[in-house]
Design a protein that fits this description.
about 375 residues, seven-stranded mixed β-sheet, Substrate-binding domain-containing protein, Rossmann fold, 2 domains, single chain, 12 helices, Peripla_BP_I, six-stranded parallel β-sheet, SBP_2_dom
């Protein structure tokens, strides 16, 4: 991977400060991943597991990966872009925002200082309104739920100010162009790994965090894929409040460990890596060697636990945040220049396992054989 990233635990404290709550399931036994219905894979014998194993091999690749990209060069001209971060205490939000500013400079645009949304929709909406008052030509959001700031974004659309969002799940939200994996690739890759690793017989506990729409997209994709390739796999749905991140355990997880003694579960999927880290450490402290724990977003601390290879931490996904940030800048300038946006909602992700974890110390998917900066500079006439 091309660039070094700094690990931060600030995401844990800031997400916890959101104060959102959710409740877990009370069912004692996991429900079928496909809702109990028959799938094509259910009649295919072991073919589903074979398909999953082949898919895992593909998802673990860190070179030779195809990225959706624009193919039409254009003159971006000059302009001002407002960069609004979901929260600068989060590694992905901070680095994604910094990358947007770098892309803007390469394009010849002037970027605002990063507006820190502090994981608070009211603050994020206020920055959108500020950008409109101050005459910015475009807005780039970084990992922000558009529906939570709808009125402000409606105002941007009314003024024909283009808006793009880095690594978001704002499906069909008018006026916002997502540059993202969308969550589907992430959830699908995790499902393939679970099916392959369990040889088609996983008992899985999967957590949602309702404060981030992309988590729900990942869960839906994971369960849909399991229904195809692993009809004998079972999934227990659960939710965990973000406030748990600031508490030992966390409490919802320690309750689950009591509910499911050794032998009742094999696999646990956290909503993202900042939860997967304490899940793993608590499981280790309680000698729960029967569990295999996964997450999303390739937080460097969790990747290090996977690389060690001797504990419950087994899998996560890495998203191409750097490419998404440059792509978002391209999209808003392209629209401002009267061009059509390109399809940017199905960016690839990489599956991170012990096999390739050493390649993800920076925490993002940025293949060494894909020079996205050179690509965009060429399209902008800046090479």
């Amino acid at each position: 991977m091309r660039r070094t990233r700094q690990t931060t635990l600030g995401l844990i404290a800031v997400i916890a400060a959101l104060g959102l709550t959710a409740c877990g399931s009370d069912d004692d036994e996991p429900a079928a991943a496909n809702g109990g219905g028959t799938t094509a894979a259910a009649t295919a014998g072991g073919d589903g597991v074979a398909q999953a194993k082949a898919a895992v091999a593909q998802a673990e690749r860190t070179t030779g990966v195809e990225f959706p990209q624009p193919d039409e060069a254009f003159d971006p001209g000059t302009g001002k872009v407002a960069v609004i971060s979901c929260g600068q205490a989060g590694l992905n939000c901070k680095q994604g925002s910094d990358d947007v500013r770098t892309a803007a400079a390469a394009m010849g645009w002037k970027a605002s200082p990063v507006f820190d949304g502090e994981f608070a929709p009211a603050k994020q909406a206020g920055y959108v309104q500020q950008a409109l008052r101050e005459g910015y030509d475009a807005i780039v959001l970084v990992s922000i739920d558009a529906n939570s700031i709808k009125a402000a974004l409606d105002a941007a659309a009314a003024k024909d100010v283009p808006v793009a969002c880095v690594m978001c799940a704002n499906k069909d939200f008018p006026g916002v162009i997502d540059v993202t994996s969308g969550g589907v690739a992430d959830g699908t890759a995790i499902a393939d790994w679970i099916a392959a690793d369990s040889d088609g017989k996983a008992k899985l506990l999967a957590y949602d965090d309702k404060s981030f729409p992309i988590v729900a997209e990942r869960l839906a994709a994971m369960k849909a894929r399991l229904g195809e390739v692993c009809p004998d796999c079972t999934v227990e749905d659960a939710s965990i409040p973000t406030t748990d991140l600031s508490k030992p355990g966390p409490p919802t997880w320690t309750a689950a460990l009591a509910k499911y003694p050794a032998g009742k579960l094999g696999y646990v999927m956290a909503p993202y890596d900042p939860f997967a880290i304490p899940f793993t450490k608590t499981a280790e402290q309680r000698s729960r060697t029967d569990l295999k724990i996964g997450g999303y977003d390739a937080s460097p601390d969790f990747v290090a636990l996977i690389a060690a290879g001797n504990g419950p931490a087994k899998v996560t996904t890495a998203a191409p945040f750097p490419y998404a940030s440059w792509g978002a800048m391209d999209q808003v300038a392209r629209v401002k220049a009267g061009k059509q946006p390109w399809e940017s909602t199905k960016l690839p992700v990489a599956l991170v396992t012990a096999k390739n974890a050493a390649e993800f110390d920076e925490g993002f998917f940025s293949p060494d054989d894909f020079d996205y900066e050179a690509l965009f500079k060429r399209l902008w006439g800046k090479s």
